[in-house]
Design a protein that fits this description.
It comes from Streptomyces argyrophylli. InterPro entries: TPR-like_helical_dom_sf. This is Tetratricopeptide repeat protein. Keywords: Membrane, Transmembrane, Transmembrane helix. The chain contains five helices and no strands. The chain has two domains: 61 residues; 53 residues, no CATH class. The protein is mostly helical and 151 residues long. The model has no long low-confidence stretch (mean pLDDT 91).
Length: 151
Amino acid sequence: MRAKITYLVTAAVLVFYFVLVGSRGVMLIQSGTVVTVTFGVAVLILPLIGLWFLWKNTQFVRKANQLAAELDAEGGLPVDELRRLPSGRIDRDSADEVFARRKAETEVSPDDWRCWFRLAVAYHDARDTPRARKAMQRAIALHDGKPVQTA
């Protein structure tokens, strides 16, 4: 719940910032000179890119949470079997062991979104966020019946 609240607060702050920057862009355009109109248009493009990025990330998180809920209902969520350091952080060797099992599971069933979801969690636990995101995107695509590129 804490992560959801943090995400919502961050998104709200970003939207406020985008509105603030967008209003400055409009003010620059209203000045009417070539330089200020050019800067105004450039300033308006940045909030649009930011809004698009925020929207895509929100959709990704929403879909990943839907998959987690579905997998939980099936009893297929991965169990936290990771050893922890005294600081509470995940032991790297433990994460590597779980990752190896999840990867093997995914290689056996490459078209099963559930395997890709569990692999994404293993990547995340191993602190490989870019690959975790790619694996989750693949799980979402497989779940939705969309075509998936093979690497």
